[in-house]
Every structure is written in structure tokens, then in C-alpha cells.
Amino acid sequence: MAAIIEPRVLKGFRDFLPPAEMIRRIITESIEASLRSFGFVPIDTPALEYAEILFGKSLQNPPSPGVVPPGGSGTPGGSETEKQIYRFTDSGGRDVALRFDLTVPFARYAALHQQELHFPFKRYHIGKVWRGENTQRGRYREFTQCDFDIIGSDSPAADFEILLMIRSTLQSLGLDVTIKVNHRGLFNRFLSHIGLEGRSVEILRTVDKLAKTGIDVTRESLIAIAGEANTQKLLEFISAGRGSAADNSFENTLERITALSGGPSPESERLAMLKRFMNDSGAGSGDFSLDPSITRGLDYYTGVVFETFLTELPDIGSICSGGRYDNLAGLYSKNCICGVGSSIGLDRMIAALESLDKLPAVSGFSVAAIACIKQEDSGLYQALAAKFRQAGIPCEVLLEPASGQLVKQFVLAEKKGLRWIIIPGENPLNGPLTIRNLAGRKNIEGLSVDDIIAMISDF
Amino acid sequence: MAAIIEPRVLKGFRDFLPPAEMIRRIITESIEASLRSFGFVPIDTPALEYAEILFGKSLQNPPSPGVVPPGGSGTPGGSETEKQIYRFTDSGGRDVALRFDLTVPFARYAALHQQELHFPFKRYHIGKVWRGENTQRGRYREFTQCDFDIIGSDSPAADFEILLMIRSTLQSLGLDVTIKVNHRGLFNRFLSHIGLEGRSVEILRTVDKLAKTGIDVTRESLIAIAGEANTQKLLEFISAGRGSAADNSFENTLERITALSGGPSPESERLAMLKRFMNDSGAGSGDFSLDPSITRGLDYYTGVVFETFLTELPDIGSICSGGRYDNLAGLYSKNCICGVGSSIGLDRMIAALESLDKLPAVSGFSVAAIACIKQEDSGLYQALAAKFRQAGIPCEVLLEPASGQLVKQFVLAEKKGLRWIIIPGENPLNGPLTIRNLAGRKNIEGLSVDDIIAMISDF
Questions:
Q1: What is the pTM of this model?
Q2: How far, CA to CA in Å, does B411 sit from each of A72, B371, B455?
Q3: Interface contact B155-A378, CB threshold 8 A
Q4: What is the predicted ipTM?
Q5: Which among A345, A418, B20, B271 would be 20 to 30 A from A270, CA to CA?
Q6: Which residues contact A34 (CB under 8 A, 6 or more apart)?
Q7: How many CB atoms lie within 10 A of CB A254?
């Protein structure tokens, strides 16, 4: 006999047992139902792409002769992201890599298919992505992202729809959220106004880390970049949303940062329009706030940016972030495609739901099972189960004969999370049936199929 | 400006545009609903695994220093399958590969988690797999499989449940099928009976190719393996289900192959039991047939085997095949885990549905849209759309103002596959509304939200 190969999964990768996978499915289906109700449609793209597409540049040094491992020595000067990518050479000598997010493939997709899409194009994409992350930080190397974007529209109505959809999608999962909004363009206008336009990227990145590093570290970093006097103004700007509850209303904060950035501008007007949309749509006053310290570190955002925090669990950080960009696919197309979009990290959201004890109550998809009394009657048991399924009641058939020990089947059904077990009699299809409520450990005898359908449906 | 990177996908890989992806989703959801109604639960496993797990053996020569490309020179003597696997070395020096099916990961999963599963365990798994196939044969290098198995039960009721579930799942997609059943063990018993037990593997593989190569080639091959006299007996056995319609009933065929294999046996009794189940469950006489030429070439099947053919499109070949195995996870565990399972090839099934003009009618998930008359009213439009969504009507909001040219919004809505467009008036939320049936090109004015909900729901 050959030696046993140790069954194991790669570090940072996960198997999902049925209880966990059922929860993932139910949550994903809830998110999809919400996105679809807003008119968003799904797309899919390959897991594997040309490395130059994912890296976003022509690569001078394709891996040779084989792999350039993420973090390996093959990409001197490679960025953090590049080091994390699973990259190798395929059998046709192609330099390929596993996608590390859904944004870059979407940019490539939009460039390739722009003649086939109807703009404004509202799409969602749920799929696995892979990164050779340091797993010690509690991160996974394979995880699921859920992205949604509206491209081909510069309208503030598109910005607002994304914000509203985030709120609606998370509310339908039982989560109360505050979405913190800002405008990168207004931040940049403010930087120009105080003569710091050349340091925009460094400053935005520093401010983006504020929540992680704290105000003192941020102040030190800003002084190093912009000097003492400007840092005072920067802190005034980014703190404009942080007064007392009465003081930090969206309107008051907007008034303050408008003044600090030199007066009304297209950017401040867009924020005012968004606030009008929020009021008109009936959003609660706590649903959206204006927080000038939100910048999103990523370079490609140019307009509205936002992060989403759980009211009951703010410390877990943003569970859904995004913003507006004015050139999604510039690396792959001469046409500018603007848009606004966002991404939900499914793992972090499930962790949050678990912490809040708000995971959907799911044990199995079936609620009932037919007990197996005599194996040779299994065809009749299936016909009986079909009657319940036709009535919309998922019903499974137990397969191993009881051999007089029906209790074993009760135990199995309970482990599977079923609520009812139906015990057929001498004439399984047309004779009387017994039903057992597994939680109550009570049998009721002499029922018809219709009796049982009514009983289970009423429960 | 940097040079444009050509947007392209790898050979054998695919982007899915919304119409195609919506169809894939709807079909997948239908399959899942059917599997769940039988009590099957989902699992998931990583896309990437240790290569030795996927190859099913300890590898003497891990790729060094980098990749062993599928089909490359790194695996002398590698099998066809091995040559097709996407295999490389990750940053931690691990010899890894992308999964090429869902069966091998499931075997590894069952071995690893056997203490956490409740047996008999009924699971399904829908996921992407990757093979460096020759794309000239019309095959893809990334495709979706849908596997479902019952493990930990040797019961004929489990065999039957898989068969019944295939029929039920495909019927719910509007497909009429015949499932051709055989028993590998009975075939082997017959081979022993005529003194050919040592040639079992070659003979089964030759017979498995019968449908592709034709009877003449099969006869020649069998003569080379087994000689003239035995070939006569082999052809009699595998043709036992191929008489006239009256003659080739399940019972008649079973009687013939039982006699040819030396009389009643546990294997012939299991087939008889399956036939009893079929009759008892109310299956039509054409739903299942016994075809002794079905062998499934794969070595790991030991019991019942089956293939599924479309009544209206038999030439496309089997769209769902499988069988019983007595040792799923022997490579990874000392415990024998028996089971029965099957796999649906989603791509082939969608191609079949398309050929038969039976693809689900889908244009978008939304049926209605709110026209954008004045951009500044977009918050009110969202509040209006929310009323329809709350009534269960997916409703989107158009984002770009009409600027007097409402017809442009009609055209966009039609392209999106919407049926209705709702045109708000001066008071979008509480004033009268106009609805336009896009196909009929007719407007009806002066309606309330409730009027429109009733109209759309009745349609």
C-alpha cells in the first residue's frame, strides 16, 4: 500500500465546512439580491491574467525561465502589491498571474468591451482573489471580494446611488452603518489654496493613516512634509467634521471646509447636492456624515470618497470603501471612462456579523427528512419527499435503514440541523404518517401529507 | 503618456458579459435550489493546493527552481492530466497547483475533516477549475464544475437518490433526459466468469470509447485484447441493452446480463433494487435505462455508473456522469470512505440549452426604471424606486438627466432589457406618475405608486 499523503491546505487558504459555507452563501445571496434590485448586473473575468495587465505596465523582465515568486528576487524594486502576486510562466511561455483584486481586471474588461456595454453601466462582480499576504496579520491568501461600480456617468446621482446601495445592502443584513464621505477634489483644492498642491500624494496618504496612527503621529508626519504653519491648517481641515454632535452636521462641516478651500467650488457644490439627495431620499441624519479626514490612499480616486463603519462595532474599521475616479481604464484604452464604485470585503463583514451575533440563523437548507424504516421502500420515500418539495418544503430522505433504532436517525437529523422528521408507516405514500418535532422531542401520529405541509408551513 | 497595454484575455479563458453571466447565474441558482431541496449542503475548498495532493502522490522532483509548466519538460513520464495542470512554486518555496477538478480536493477534504462531518454526508460544490487543455478542441482552460456526492453510505438508496436528483435538477431546467445506468462490479463479475479478470482495466477503457469510436473499432480492439471468442461474448454483454424497444426494457436487459455473468449476484440484486426504486418513485419508463456498455473509464468507480443524455440532443454526449466508488480518500486516509456522486459540466449544459432554444428568458434583473427628468430630484427618484423595491419589484434609477430628450432614456432602458419606465412628474413622490410600456411604446398617465405596482405585478 502506498504511503498516505498528509491531507492539508496551504497556509493562508481555507476549507469551508457546510455551516460556514451556508452562511457565506446566504450572505452573498442577500447582497446580490440587493444589488440586483438597484439594476446592477453581474460580470465575470478569468482568475488568471497576463501579468502585464495586472501589474499595469509593460514588464521588461518576464520571469525566466520559470516563476517569479511573490516576494522573490525576480522583481527588484517591485511594489508591495507586486511582491504579493502569484505570478508564474504557463506552458505556452506566457507571463501570467492570479488576480489580486477585481478592480484591475474590471478596468481591462471595460477597455476591451466598451463597444458592447451600455453606459452608464452598473455592474457587480463577486469572486475570489489571491495575495501572498503575511498571514500573521490575520489575513488570508485567498479571499472573496464583492465589487460594484457605475461607469460612464459623472453624475452626482451615481455617487449617491452607490452610497444609498451600500446602506441598503448592509441594512438588509441587519447592520446599522454610518458612511463617512469626503471629496478628494475638494481636499486638493484646499491644498492648492494653501500652496501645497505639489505635496498632495504624500499628504493624502498620511491623512489616510490617521485612524491607525493617531493624531500625534499624523501631526509629526505632516510637519515633516508641510511645515508647522500649514500643518495647523491641515489639521483644522481634517478635523472640521469632529466637533460636538450639534456642530458636526454635514451642512456645518461642508460650510467650514468650503471656506477653508477658498469658497464655493464645483466640488463643494457636489457635496451639497449629495446632501440634498440624502435628505430627499429620507435617509436618517446618522446614516451619512461628512468627514474631511477620509482620503482613501489609492491614487486613482479623484472625486467623492467614502468609508463605511458599523454603528455597533466601529473599531473593526471600514467594511465597505470606495470612491469616484475619472479614468478607470487609462492603462488599456485611450478613452477616459469615469465612474464610481465600492468593494465589500466579505470576510471582514462576516467576522463583524459574528461579533455582533447577527449571523443569519441557518442550520441546513432542508427543514424536514423522511426516516428510513425499510430500505426497500426507498423509492416510495423519495416519492413522498417529492410531495413536500413540490409544496416548497425542502425535504431530504434518510438513506440508511433504522434497523429498529430510529433514535439514530433522530440524532443524525438533529446534527444536520433539521427541524422535523417524518416517519412513514406501512403504506408510505397513502397511509397515515407520524411527524416528530426534533427540538420538542414529540411525535404526532395519524397525519396526512397535507396536514404535515400545513403544520410545517405554519411553523 | 505611457503606452497603452493591449487589453486581452489568455487563450482558453473568458470574460462574461452581463447577458451571458446572468444566464449562468440563473442556471446555477436553479441547480443549487434543486440540490438544496434534496438536503445537499455546500462546501468550498481552495483554488490552489499542494501539488502532491492534486497529483495524488509524493513528488520526487519538485519544480526547480521555478515553475513546471503544464506540458513542459519538468515532468518526464507525466500523465495527460499532470501535463495539463497549472503548477508552480510559491514564494515560500511550496510546490503548488491550481485544482483541475473538484473530486481530488473533495477526497483530500473528506480525509482532513472526517471527524467534523456527519455521515452519510451529502454535499455539493460549484467552482472553477483550470486545465491547460488544447483549446483547438473547443475546450476552455478555465471552466465551472458542479459536483454532488453522498459519502459514507453504501446504500442503494444513495445510488438512487443521485440518479433521481440528476433527473429532477435537469427537468427543472426544462430538459428531458435519459440516464443510462450500469454496474462496474457486475461487468467485472462477467469478465471473471469468462476468465478475463486480468484484463479488466483495458477492456473497460475500450468499451468506454464505444460511443466515440464505433462498434467496428471496438471489436478490433477487443479482439486484440481478448481474442475472437471472448470478443463475441463481450459484444453480447455490452449489447444486451440494445435490442428492440420492447426487448430492451431494464428488466429484460438485467435478466440477460445476470445470466451472462453467471447468475444472480449482489451486483445484479442492487440493479434490481434500483429498478424497484425507480418504479416506486413514479419515474417514467424512459427516464432510466440499463446499458451494459456504460463503463466510465475512470479507475476509481467500483459500483453503479451512469451517464445522462438529452432526449432531444443525444449527440452532444453525456452532460452529467458519475458513479459509486468504494474508497474516495485512500490516498490521504487509512479509513475507507465509500460514496456515490456525479458532476455536471456547466458549459456543456448551457451550450445544450442554447441549441435547444431553452435558455431561461432573461434580459436584466430589473423590470422597471425611474426616468431622470431633473438631476436635482435624484434623491426623490431613489425614494420612489425604494417603494417599488419594497413591493418586490426590482427598480433602477436612471442617472443622466434627459435634457428634454426622454427618448434617449427609453433607448437605454430597452437596451438594458427593462420592460417599464416610470416617468415622475413635478412632485415625484406624491404626485401622479406616467408609466411607459417599452415594448408597446405606450404611455399611461395619472397613476399612483399603488396603481403601477398592481399593473407591473399583474403583467
A1: 0.92
A2: 52, 12, 22
A3: yes
A4: 0.92
A5: A345
A6: A165, A168, A169, A172
A7: 22
